[in-house]
Each structure stands twice: as C-alpha cells, then as structure tokens.
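User: Hi! Is it possible to get a structure for several chains at once, not just one? Here's what I have:
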Amino acid sequence: MSAVTPRSATGNPLRRKTRAMRPWDWSFPSAPLVHREVISVQPPEPTDRPPLLMVHGVAHGAWCYEENWVPAAAEKGWPAYAVSLRGHGGSAGARHLRRTLTRDYVHDVMQTITELPSPPVLIGHSMGAIVAQLVAERYPLRGLVLLTPAPMHSAVGDLVAIAKDRPADLGRAVIGQTLSMEPDILFEGLDATTARAYSDRTGLESPLVQWELLLRRRVGPVRCPVLVIGTPGDRLVRPADVQRTADSYGVEPVWFPGMGHDVMLDAGWDRVLDTVLEFAADLPAWGTAPAR
Amino acid sequence: MCGMAEPTPETAPEPEASAPPPAPKPRRRAPAKKAAAAPPAPAFVDRGDAWAVVGAGPHGMSALKALLQNGIDADGFERESDVGGNWNFGAENSRVYESTHLISSKPFTQFPDFPMPDAYPDYPSHRQVKEYFGRYVDHFGLRSRIHFSTDVVNAVPVDDGRAWDVTVRDRITAAETTYRYAGLVVGNGHNWSPKQPVYPGQDGFRGEIIHSADYKGAEVLRGKRVLVVGAGNTGCDVAVESAQNAVHTWHSTRRGYYYNPKYMTGRPSDQVADSLLALKIPLPVRRALFKGSLRFAVGDLTKFGLKKPDHKFFETHPIVNQQLVYYVGHGEITPVDDIDHFESDAVVLSDGTRAEVDLVVFCTGYLVNFPFLDHEWLNWQDDHPQLFLQIFTPRFANLAVSGLIQPDSGQWTLAHWQGMLIARVAEALRQRPSVARGFLSRASAEADRRFSAGTEYKNSTRHYYEVAHQEYLGVLQDAIHELEVSA
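Assistant: Yes, the chains can be modeled jointly so their relative placement is included. Here is the combined structure:
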C-alpha cells in the first residue's frame, strides 16, 4: 500500500510512567521453557540491518511466518526470525497451556531477543501484538510493528462483534475453548484448499490468555517508532480497534483492503511485508535515536 | 540477598577498623597521578557532547548502554581487557572466588531488559554471570565503545564544571591521552579496595594473614587451622569452604546474624520475601514471618554457640547461607568472639580463648575508593560520599556515580535504572538545562536521604550504601518520570 513514514510514539493516551517496579515479575517469574522454537533464515550477504523478530497470534505458531515472510525477508537482505510462544508450534509447554498467561509469552519473547545478535524490529500479530507492546515497554526495540493488533484497551468490543457474527464461537471462548480459526475468519483471498490447510495448522490457545484479552492494559512509554497495519474486513479485530491502537501511538494505520486477519498468509502478504521492510529500512540506527 | 556475593564490609572490630591498612601489598590501581619521570604531555581529544563512563562492570556497562540508547554519545573506560568488573574472575580487581554464586535469584538480579537465559539456574555462578555480561555488551554493541586495558589516571572538571577532562593511560603502551567530555559517570565499583583491620601483636604473628580480596579458592585452606574473621556473605562462604577443607575453622563475628536460607517453600527465598512485599504486608508482619520460619526450621542459634542477633530482621544486609549452621553442628566450625590480640602462634579472642591457627582470613569488606577523583567533588562527608539518590553530587550536575548502592535484593536491576536516570539527566542537561538544574538543585537538600523502607540499618561502613530495593526503585522511577513529563 502507500508508503509510510515512521513516526515516533507521542501523545499515547494510555501512556503512563516508566515502570521500574515489577514486584510480581520478581516474586513469581515465568517458568523456564525447556524448548523454544525459533525459526530463522539469514540473508545471503552479511548485513548490518537489524534482525526482524516475528511473534504470532492466538493459536498460531512460528510456522505462519515461516511459510512466506521469513524466507522472503531474508532474501531481501534482512535477518529474519520467528518464535513459537510456549504451547504453540514447535515449542514446549503444551501441557501447561491451560495455566499460561500473557506474561509468560512476554518472557518467551524477551528470552528470544537476548539470543539475537542485536536489538530487533519486533513484529507482533493479533494477540502477539499485545505481547510485542508489553516487550516494547521493557526493552529498547529498534522498531515495533503491529499487525492487525488485538486491542490493549480491552477486546470487549471485538467480543460483541463476534457474538453478533457467530454466537456459538463466543460461547466456546467464554467457557475457555479456543476461538474459531476457520478459514473464512482468517482469510479473504486464498483458495479454499490452501486456506483450509492453514486453518488446520492452528492449535489451541490458553483460555487465560484469551480472557486476558478482555482486560484493559496500560503500556508504559514506548520510545521506538511504531507501524500499525490493519485490514478493513478483519473478522477478529475490528478496524475501529486497530485505529484506536494506532492513535494511541500517534500514528496512522496502513490499511490493506481485501485481506483477512492473517496478513502474513493471505493473498497479498508480499505487499504487507514490503510495507514493513520499508518501515524497517527507515529506522534510525540504535544508539543515535533522539529520546522519543 | 544482594546480587554480589562479595560485600562484607562488616564485622571488623569497630575501633581499629578505620586504621590505615598496614603497608598494603602492591596497591591496586595506585593513584599514579604523577609518574616517576616527567611523561610527555598527553594527547588531547575533545569529545564534545559525549559522556565518559569509568568502569565496564555491570554498572558501567548499563550506564553506557542507557546513554547510547537515549542518543547520547558515550565512551567507556575499563582497566581490564574484558567487561565484568568484579565478576571478571582472575582479573586483578576481581573479588569473586572459585565457588562464588549469586545469592539473589535471577528475576531481579538481572538487567530488566536483558533477562538471564532460562537455562541458567536460580542462582548462577560467577562464570555464568560473566558470560551473561559478555552477551549483554555484544547484543547492545557496546564493546566497540569501550577503551579496554585503559587506566583512568584522573578526571578534573574544566570550564567551570561544564566539562570533564579525563586523562587515561593505555596499560599496554603506557601512552596517555586526555579526553574532554560533557559529563562523567563513575562506575568503578566499591568492592575492590580491601578494608584491612589492624590488631595488637599482628606483626609478630608467625602464621599467614590474608584478606578475602586475595581469596580465590579453597586450596589455601587445605590442611590448615583457619580463623575466618567477619560474617558478611563472603565471611560465611569462606568459613563454610574452610570447614570443608581445613583442619579446623574458627569463625569470629562481632554480632549475631540471621542466616537466611536460599530456598523457602521450594522457591528462592528472596522471591518469597518479594511476594510478601508485593502483597504490601507490613514490615512487622514480614519480620515475624521470616523470624518465625527461621526459628521453626533452624531454631535458637545460641544453642549452636552462635551469638544472638542484636538487631531486628532486615536491619543488616541479609546473609544468605544455609551451610554455616550445618558445619557448626558438625563441629567443623567453632564460632568465636572478636579478636583481642595476636600472639606469635595464636589469636586471642576477647572472651579469653586462644585459637592456635596457621591462617587468618579477614573477610572484613571493602572501602569506597575513587583514586582518580578528588573526593571533595563527591560531597565527601567523614569517610563516605553523600550523594543525592546515591548518584548525584550537589557539586556538579554532570557528574554521576553508578553502583554506590548495596541493595537487599539483586543488584543489576538497580544498575539498569540508575543508568536510565543518569541518561535522562544527561539528556535534560543538553536539551532542557533549566529542568535538569531544577531537578539537581534538590541534590544538596536531599543528599542525606536514605532508602531503608522503614528499617534502621546498623551503622557500619557497609550500610552507608544499603538500600531497600522497593523504596529505592520507586524513587528512581519517580525521578525518571519527573524528567520525562517535563519534556
């Protein structure tokens, strides 16, 4: 779509003060994860570009980026990484999925970041965008990309929309079953076979994490440039919520009409990736950025 | 529960403790202000708006990173060839020993934006800590910003305190260079310059006397009769290692202590303590709970011959050691009183006992030492600097000290936030000088503020720098916010 100029986070209405005190993180740290799946492809030529780290959403795994984005980004010269959060994809933790919290996902992403050669551009999709924003307040990212982000200001609106659209799905989510990941919910432009195949690869989600989506969360100051991407026809995250997330960082979302919720898989994923890479290419070098 | 297993500046008998060290062995980082032959005039480099950071231990590293992260150019200076400071085992000024492990658990010992790997245990070893620091500097690209193997000879304010001239000497070529910086962060550590007590008759003692600064491993204890002096965390560690290796061990302490376990209810005990803090349980209740659980698990320490603590829980820097009492119970360690005097073949204690020993290990802690800075500039009072928020001096807005704290928790979370505050001040000094000066004008008024979260710390040199992490971090957080909202 249109080129986007990265803008720094300013005027974030949800922004509150820098949080040094995290007594719950200190006293009840997330359980260590025995195996974390990190898929990575390096560009053909060595580069000083920042790594891209991609975080998936509800019931997905690193595979959703492995399919298109990771190899394509590497081919265009970017060190590309995708992580599976605990209980997802090839990572361990499926047995404890029912008591997994969003903070555990934050822990997993922080752990992955420390293994990267330098500070990354963090890309979060849907629920993974919430994780990414929580990481961004803790860690000095090069840039933050939110793909069809689940709202930090509570997903109650989306829940109501889902209730009108498909009441049965709402009922399942309320009793702790995983939100429906049927092909017509995630994709608009894929052929039926491919869409079904992707939909079948989705797994389970932690009920606690799904319920946590209803919480209104505040995020501390985010100092890196932010890019927000949405689709007008999204059946999981309402465009109004994407707009509000973008507003909270003082940026305009970039819209991709004709695409479904899974912008990294749906037809047109390459255009979305190009927008992300354009944003990443324009970022100020780490250590030279003005304060905000 | 401090992150450094080192600090032990306790337990030396008070009166003699302040006496000057007896002819110290080759002084570490001798204040070599004037070298013998007149050296050629040092080269001069004006670094303009950049800041200097002295030391590449955890505090220096995190201050350097915080400055760079906030767009302030900065250079680091480190005397060794690698980062790690105290944790650079084997380096001249490293004070860790072979068996050192953290005594505070990972979650609030690590840098909050760079957690330790999941594969590390709850209490990593000094080797893992050093590896962790190496990954931190590599990840944030700090290595190229640090001048390694470089001594800072001196640092002087110039241009009415608007800049600092930092003279450094390359330890390999001995070439001296003077750099001019807009600001200076001092992170040279406070656990390297030994505090050496002196007792009557010490010169005539035929056995060996060492300071824990020179204690690297248990070999020196093997087959000897050993007296360990001091009940800081190092003192207790050395006493335990001595119990395992020496013929017999005497452990001399000035007062009784609470010996905290590393684990409670299957969790690191500092995490248990912090959950009570997170629940906002009042101090007297927390005290009662901890005291009660120790009482239940171990019982009355005086039955082991140890002294009764003369203070309340949380009033001294916590000692985390489960094995000391165990070895007292095995008869390997005899707890004894203060030293009275030395005889040629024995040490006589103030209760009259005579311990015939071959080796005395003074685990009597360290003194703060800034060999390259005029103490006056750090608002020196008696024998220690009085700094606003333990960081800023009322004398200069562009001089900050990182690391002059000893928290009742892990250290490096605090290192991170100290660095972030210093970077905010540096940024404000550049962009909004009036805001920065307004903030720092409080420095002289509040320089004596302590962060004890309601407890009265025992007055000894180690407790000048003691901070209660929950109160101190809260204050740092407010200060950072104050500078941010004024942007």
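The two ends of chain B are 36 Å apart (CA to CA). Chain B has two domains: 14-193+367-485, 198-365.

User: Great, thank you!
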